[in-house]
Prior knowledge:
This protein is of the alpha+beta class. The chain contains six helices and ten strands. It has a six-stranded mixed sheet, with helices on one face. Strands 7-8-6-9 form a four-stranded antiparallel sheet, with helices on one face. The longest helix is centred in the first third of the chain and has 18 residues, at 57-74.
Amino acid sequence: MNDDWRLQINLADEGVAGKVADAMRSAELEHELANDFGRRVIVSHEGETIFLYAGDRDQVDRAEVAVRKYLDEKGWEAKLELRHWHSAAEDWEDPDAAEPTTAAAAAAEHERLMQTEDEEAAERGGLAEFEVRVEFPSHREAKEFAAKLEGEGLEPVRRWRYMVVGAADEDAANELADRIRAEAPADSKVTAEGSLAAAWRERPPNPFFFLGGLADG
C-alpha cells in the first residue's frame, strides 16, 4: 500500500543535522529497516531539521528507533515528531488523529485545502541503473502525475511531492526527463542521474534515500 508517513527531527545543537545526515548517507546508523527499493526512506533536511518520509508506519517507526539510538550515543538532543498525511485534511496530522467523516467536517477540510497547496511523495518500483527525480509544486500534482505514469506501465517511486522513476540506461533517463519537463507543471524540478543500484553492488544497501537539496517539510 502506498502511504505517507513523516518523521521530523529537530536538532537542538547547531551543526548536528549535517552530521546526522552524513551518518545516514554512510549507513553508519544501526537499524532493522527493510532495504528493498520499494521501502526506502526518503530524506531531506534544512538547517537543523531533518525530514524522513516512509511509505508505512513500521518503516518510519524503525527509522525513529535507529535515529534515537544514534542521537543518544552521541549525546545530542532532538525533538522527534511523527506525522501521518491525512488525505481528507490534506495536511500532516498526529498519527492517532481521526480523519473527518461527517459531511460538514469534510467540507471544512475541503475549504482549507482550497487555501493551501497539498504536498506528497511516494514510493514503489524496482532497481534501475538510472533514475529521473522530480520535485513537484504540490502533493496533488505529484500524485496525479505518478498515477498517469503507472497507467502507462511505469513504476514511479512517490513520496509526498517527490517522485523517482527508474530507467534502463542514461539515454532512456534523459528522454524520460525531457518528457516529464514538457508535461509536468512548470515549477517542477527534474533531474536525471545514475541510481543507487550500481552503488549497492559495492556496499550494503542503505535504506535512507537522499534527494539532493530538497529541504522543506
